[in-house]
Amino acid sequence: MQISLDYYRILGVPLEADSELIEQAYNDRIIQLPHKGYTEYAINSRKKIIQLAYDVLSQEESRLEYESSFLPSSLETEELTGELEETVQSQNLLDTDLDILPEINIEIEENLFIGALIVLLDLGEYELILTLAQPYLNDRYSLNIFAEKEEEVNQVLQDLVLTIVLAYLELAREQWQEKEYEAASNSLKKAYDLLFKEDLFSDLRKEIKQDLGKLMPYEILELLTRENNSISERQKAIDLLKSMLKARGGIESHKIDDSGLNIDSFLRFIQQIRVYLSAEEQQNLFEEEAQRPSPAAGYLAAYAGIARGFTERKPEFIIRAKNSLISLTIHQDVYLEQSICALLLGQTAEAEFSLSQSREKGVISYIQEVSQESPDLLPGLCAYTEKWLQTEVFPQFKNLNGENPSLQNYFEDDRVQSYLETITNPPLKDDSSSPELELPMDNKNESSYSFTQFNALKEQTDYEEQIINENYGENVTPSSEIEVSGNELENQNVSLLVENEIVQNDEDLVGFDDFLSSEAEEDHSSSHSTTTTNLSPSVKDKEDEIPPEKISDSKKKNSKFFLIPLIVLLLLFGTIAVFASRILFNEEKNKLEISLSEPLIELPVKNLPPEDLIDKLDNSNALEIINQWLKAKATATGPEYNPGELTKILTEPMLSKWVGNSRDLRSRNAYRRYEHKVSIESAQVNPQNLTEGIITARVEEKSQYYRNGALVPSLSYQDNLLIKYDLIKENNQWLIKDVKIMKN
Predict the structure, then answer these.
(1) Helix 548-563 vs helix 414-424: angle between axes, to the nearest 10 degrees?
(2) What pLDDT digit, counting tens, does each position of 271-296 carry?
(3) Could you give the domains of the chain?
């Protein structure tokens, strides 16, 4: 059979090589071994073809005869030799480029085909290998011609598969270096799929899978940033991102997938790609992610909803954003964003109330300063909202950076006025639900988010240094740059370079970075579910429980606001001044309870039970609960394998998990013995849902693992852990439904 090779290339020597160089090259080639996965058949085939090249070139007579087959005249030989000598002067002799030779084929026996492919692999002829080898892989019967014995056919197949896979891998590395990430990914996938189909080389499959994971962030960026990218390319990027999120277990998860990105790097990566995703793409993606639940995804979904609602003049998206924020309110200060949502929905009284609940002192000061000439804070809130949209929101979405943030234009839009009138003039019945409940995709989460891992991010990283420092001013737009290098990928890290955005007046705008880094104040965490770190500034836009007479007044004002937006906006500044001042300056006196279970525009007044009737969690009964759980765990996983006690202290999903652990230990003839020391850090009932509670405890746990009666030190441990226990009350008894290990 003919193959595109020549004896000089097989040995790696130039045309003018002397006998000594040929001898040295031959010895080097024979000593070298190919990939360890090759069979003896392949190794011998390679040796034979190297031996064939040496036999021809080491003998002067056979060498001249060989050269005459592709060099028709001595004149041509001299010309070629002269060109090669010039090349030798600029390169090492052994690296001489032989491509100037005419294309040469040599004739080999069929049993040398695999050896020839391995030589081509050494020469970097990856695409040629794929061209030569693929037909034989498709027609398995043709492999018989390469084997002298029937039992060698399987070896030939294995060697052929390995050669094709290695060619794909080398091709992928070249494409990777050229920053052709999608092409590199496709090459790796072809290699992986072939190995999977043939069920060969599991270790190599694992390596390829890891390389695919490391490559994925770059492939996503390439697909999203590609000029004039198609819908299918963008959808592919989003699907890849979803697969990353699934493998990691969500945005806040500390689990590291094959990309190698830790939580800090992954959050920065999310920030990188946001600017290349449209508001619709982000809303669909993060609303789906928020169902895990994920507080970060919920916050990002709210951003997208606000952006879409404002730019597309569709207030229904702002309502969805508002509801996303409501899900975070029980744990986080998201009042400022909720105040903005309420303003964009024409709910001015609610906007001022939410603003009064925010602890963003810098923002409040700015709003108060702008509103000095007004009896209320609406002028400042409007100015802040426009600046916030322009500087913090729009730049985070593809094609929105130049959008006009004018509230006047927004409220003058006929679609906005028409829609807001339909939701602000419902029948006034105390027992009726707001029309907002009937709006699309109204997520009524029961405030069951677990924030432990997400809050721990602030303590575990120095992420504050990366945060965009935004202030108020004129004619300044934010900028963010993405810089991705191949070296960073090798380090399994993707970095985000964010330029500081400096605006005048030294006031901070609220954004997603603040959501990641801001800490909760002690007075906030004492009245809400425990979190070690507050994720962000924002608004608690739950529909306000305003006394009935205020509801009526507010509704009338809102209706006028939409019909004649500009005139009525000015009127509203005066008409609600008294109400606003009461809220803003007498907050403690007139504290309003806001329901978190249903995201309504207006709620009837809800009478909470007196404080002395609320089942409290204190350190004393919290200690009893935790000790009961630890005792039940020891009983279920100990030598008696008794899971019965678990049902008295656990509920789903934790109950099934630990019953399964007990069964698993029994099946392995293994068990554990525990020693514990417990101290309670805090214990609180959810003020918005009295059947939910959280205990934070410091637990010193010593565990010894026994198998077949013998201690296994490698599976034993001793830890000092800070643990958050999520509780739910069932049949008047506190049960543990989830456990999260926090930062030690």
Answers:
(1) 160
(2) 999 999 999 999 999 999 999 888 99
(3) 2-200 (no CATH), 212-446+462-509+535-604 (no CATH), 613-742 (3.10.450.240)
